[in-house]
């Protein structure tokens, strides 16, 4: 099935290359059509006062097939918890849990409605994907689940005439293999793009078993994985003010489930299959821009283990069909006043073995976003969303923010920002319907977030840079947490009274071009996170306890040196101590990691070849991101890519 889809997608692009050379040449002298506004820019347009950072996607271009987990770990201050290399990976955003981060793909939330979270190891974005990280509560923009923040995946539309093809092959330690191919075509009216990646690894690395006497070296068992991803886009410009778009993204992953140290290997396996399809029409209507979207998602998760090797057979089969639709209209009421109105509907149809039957749920929401620039250096945004969920009554979620430029001289600007937002999260389907333990009487979570900071930008000669400092506070009422049931050998979700958090974030990025041969770039991202709940001590006195698996300190730094066609990149991360229980009695020690890569580009006419060598975990650090889950030691990878970009 996957091979047929891949052949069809690449054949479509190739047909356009071969069948339209004459028309492509003729279009070079024609008048270019006016561009259509892309609604994906709304994440920054209506987010005044919020911290929104674009992730350097050069890593995706050099290493197609890289998952969102690896990308964010190396280029953001987010802490990603992983059950092993290639295993389930979730995020802790500003001290919240894995279900408090919204992930949107071209405007649609792709989090599983059963779990309410996203496995970032199942998201290998294409090389053309723009990845942005929006920090803080953004429920008024993105709906349920955006309590800690949101990850935005956008595939912008471009009708600029172009053609290109690229293939890459990589191999590495522990059976790592990666194959990638992509193609793109545009003639000014029709735009096509296709991408395919396949990544696999045996993960038979040696690790130190800290649960056994003497901490002996052992070989990791049952940790291999195989992942295939195919993305296809088709865009057609009907007229200067109208376009049609269709996007598809298919990911199939087979994983052996890496056992914890000291646990029996039950040969557990998991198969994930994620199909995402969407269509979009955008055009000029009623004095503004109207966008209509519709999407269908099918998410399948099948887990099984060897019941003869386990005291409990926890095999589980689940399939969720999601139907979503959106309609938006954006209009400039005044030259400095922009308004967007929208509505969204969702239908979930879940067939999960753990529910004892099929479950359906409907959701609907309306929203209004306002952007006002009363002064050249002042931007204000006011957003509001109201949701209706079957069986629940989520609160009204407003958001108010502002940016104000207080200094601009000698190539420098200094701006101050502030934002206050309300957020909410509806209990997941598992929270309510899982047997045993599900609680249909759970309340929706409701939270408030506050943040403020300074942004400094410098552009002087050959040096450019941006530094942003942010302080924030948040509180969430009725936080949902799974804990052991008072009776019975199972867990159940409960509403905690309140969880509070605060912290600070620093992001600094710089680039210096010495001449046409030498250039230097680098960045630093740091997060200080306090996220606490009040729990009784042995004397029944309430004490503040840091939420488990929330490090107080996380640092990510990277640097690159380019000399002619050579480049050398290093990145390093530091992760502080993390508690592994609610009582803060046990913890994982702090650790740091370093990676390095060296590459060279060769060019011949319209062809470009790149050779790259990488060293992962350069310092051979022994570490765990989840308790008793071994991670690989130092390992190596090499990759060769060939790119064809014909001259216009």
Radius of gyration: 25 Å
Number of helices: 7
In what range is the share of β-strand residues?
over 45%
CATH architecture tag: Beta Barrel
And the CATH topology?
A: Maltoporin, Chain A
Query: What does the main sheet amount to?
Result: 22 strands, antiparallel, barrel
The CATH first-level class comes to: Mainly Beta
Q: Helical residue percent?
A: under 10%
Give the tally of structural domains: 1
Mean pLDDT: 88
Classify the secondary structure makeup into a structural class.
Answer: mainly beta
- Termini, distance in Å? 35 Å
Number of strands: 36
Contiguous uncertain segments of 5+ residues: 1-40
Under CATH, the homologous superfamily reads TonB-dependent receptor, beta-barrel domain
What overall form do the CA principal axes indicate? globular
Keywords: Cell outer membrane, Membrane, Receptor, Signal, TonB box, Transmembrane, Transmembrane beta strand, Transport
Membrane topology: Multi-pass membrane protein
Family: Belongs to the TonB-dependent receptor family.
Protein name: TonB-dependent receptor
């Amino acid at each position: 099935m996957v091979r047929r889809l891949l052949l069809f997608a690449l054949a479509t692009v190739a047909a356009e290359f071969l069948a339209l050379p004459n028309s492509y040449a003729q279009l070079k002298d024609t008048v270019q059509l006016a561009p259509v506004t892309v609604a994906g820019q709304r994440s920054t347009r209506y987010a005044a006062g919020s911290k929104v950072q674009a992730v350097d996607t050069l890593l995706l271009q050099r290493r197609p097939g890289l998952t969102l987990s690896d990308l964010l770990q190396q280029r953001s201050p987010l802490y990603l918890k992983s059950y092993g290399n290639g295993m389930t990976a979730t995020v802790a955003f500003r001290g919240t849990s894995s279900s408090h981060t919204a992930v949107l793909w071209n405007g649609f939330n792709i989090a599983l409605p059963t779990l309410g979270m996203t496995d970032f190891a199942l998201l290998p974005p294409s090389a053309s994907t723009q990845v942005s990280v929006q920090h803080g509560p953004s429920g008024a923009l993105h709906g349920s689940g955006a309590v800690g923040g949101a990850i935005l995946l956008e595939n912008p539309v471009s009708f600029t005439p172009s053609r290109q093809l690229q293939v890459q092959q990589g191999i590495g330690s522990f059976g790592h293999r990666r194959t990638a191919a992509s193609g793109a075509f545009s003639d000014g009216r029709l735009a096509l793009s296709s991408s395919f990646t396949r990544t696999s690894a045996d993960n038979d690395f040696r690790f130190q078993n800290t649960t056994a006497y003497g901490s002996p070296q052992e070989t990791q068992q049952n940790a291999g994985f195989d992942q295939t991803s195919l993305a296809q886009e088709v865009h057609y410009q009907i007229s200067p003010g109208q376009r049609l778009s269709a996007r598809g993204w298919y990911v199939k992953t087979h994983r052996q489930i890496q056992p914890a140290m000291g646990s029996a290997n039950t040969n557990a396996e998991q198969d994930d299959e994620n199909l995402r399809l969407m269509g979009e029409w955008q055009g000029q209507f009623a004095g503004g821009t109207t966008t209509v979207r519709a999407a269908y998602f099918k998410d399948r998760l099948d887990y099984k283990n060897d019941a003869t090797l386990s005291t409990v057979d926890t095999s589980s089969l689940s399939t969720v069909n999601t139907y979503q639709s959106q309609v938006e209209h954006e209009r400039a009421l005044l030259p400095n006043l922009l308004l967007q109105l929208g509505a969204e509907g969702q239908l979930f149809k879940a067939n999960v073995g753990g529910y004892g039957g099929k479950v359906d749920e409907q959701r609907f929401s309306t929203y209004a976003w306002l952007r006002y620039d009363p002064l050249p250096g002042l931007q204000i945004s006011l957003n509001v969303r109201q949701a209706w969920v079957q069986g629940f009554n989520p609160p009204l979620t407003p958001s108010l923010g502002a940016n104000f430029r207080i200094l601009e001289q000698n190539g420098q600007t200094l701006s101050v920002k502030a934002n206050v937002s309300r957020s909410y999260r509806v209990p997941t389907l598992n929270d309510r319907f899982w047997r045993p333990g599900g609680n249909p009487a759970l309340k929706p979570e409701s939270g408030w977030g506050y943040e403020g900071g300074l942004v400094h930008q410098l552009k002087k000669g050959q040096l450019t840079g941006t530094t942003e400092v942010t302080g924030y506070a948040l509180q969430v009422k009725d936080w949902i947490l799974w804990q052991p049931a008072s009776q019975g050998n199972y867990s159940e979700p409960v509403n905690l009274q309140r969880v509070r958090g605060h912290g600070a974030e620093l992001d600094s990025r710089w680039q210096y071009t010495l001449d046409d041969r030498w250039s230097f770039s680098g960045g630093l991202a740091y997060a200080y996170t306090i996220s606490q709940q009040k729990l009784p001590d042995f004397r029944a006195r309430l004490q503040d306890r840091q939420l488990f698996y929330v490090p107080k300190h996380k640092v990510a730094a990277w640097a690159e040196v380019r000399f002619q066609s050579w480049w050398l990149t290093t990145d390093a991360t530091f992760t502080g101590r993390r508690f592994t229980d609610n009582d803060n009695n046990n913890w994982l020690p702090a650790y740091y990691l370093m990676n390095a890569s060296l590459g060279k580009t060769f060019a011949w006419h319209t062809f470009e070849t790149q050779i790259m060598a990488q060293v992962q975990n350069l310092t051979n650090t022994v570490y765990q991101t989840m308790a008793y889950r071994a991670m690989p030691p130092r390992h190596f990878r090499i990759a060769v890519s060939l790119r064809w970009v014909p001259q216009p």
